[in-house]
Amino acid sequence: MVLENSNSFNQQAVIRTAEIFGIQNIWIVEPNVSRRAKKITRGTDKFLSIQTFQTNKECIDALKKEGRTIWAYHYKADGTSIPFGQSSIEIPSKLAIVLGNESECCSEELLGCADQFIHIPLFGFADSLTLSITAALVIQTFFTVCPQARGDLSQQEKDDLRKEWYQKLGSKSEKRREQYLSFLDNPPPPLEDLRREGEESRNYVRKKLKERIHQKELQFQQDNPT
């Protein structure tokens, strides 16, 4: 997935969306990441393969070098665009989906080199979707049509990613890092669900919010003694 012509907050929101759906490679043109926007990813960016480019030309040249077919999202439907909701879409083996911003979509430079335009049909008064919602709908449709694309990496790429992830997961504990790295030759089976289980899942609240709730409850008890 390629992001260009978008602001920092939209970029980070799309990164989080892409990661949760299983996109591994994200390319960003002219990244502009603020510390505040960085929090939107909730740390998911650490487990993605993110490349950055300073110009559209650099990105386009890299896409062509890898032999990528370029599909650019456009909010306007015309005779050359695919409504990205139909199940008969033929997905190229090496595809790059390019997203721009909400109001102007992709730049003319990237639209000009696209092999195909795609769009999501809209039926309301609003003339566009937020970028992260566009990304979610496009990615979900993509994997619905072509489920075998999820995890479609070479064995070497998988091994390299596992090693990188294990080192990051165990960065605060040498013992844990060694334990994770021991899985390289015999990886454990993936979990069916990565979310917290049972009560821990239902009761998960951020620490600061939990403290605020606790203070409000104490204040309520003081104001309303039984």
UniProtKB/TrEMBL annotation:
Spans annotated as Disordered: 172-199
Q: Which InterPro entries match?
A: Alpha/beta_knot_MTases (IPR029028), SpoU_MeTrfase (IPR001537), TrmH (IPR033671), tRNA_m1G_MTases_N (IPR029026)
Entry keywords, A to Z? Methyltransferase, RNA-binding, Transferase, tRNA-binding
User: Which PANTHER family did the record assign?
Assistant: RRNA METHYLASE-LIKE, TRNA_RRNA METHYLTRANSFERASE SPOU TYPE DOMAIN-CONTAINING PROTEIN
Q: Which organism is it from?
A: Arcella intermedia
BP GO terms, sorted:
tRNA guanine ribose methylation
Q: Which Pfam families match?
A: SpoU_methylase
The GO molecular function terms of this record are: RNA methyltransferase activity; tRNA binding
Q: What protein name is recorded for this chain?
A: tRNA/rRNA methyltransferase SpoU type domain-containing protein
- SUPFAM superfamilies (UniProt xref): alpha/beta knot
What range(s) does the tRNA/rRNA methyltransferase SpoU type domain occupy? Answer: 7-139
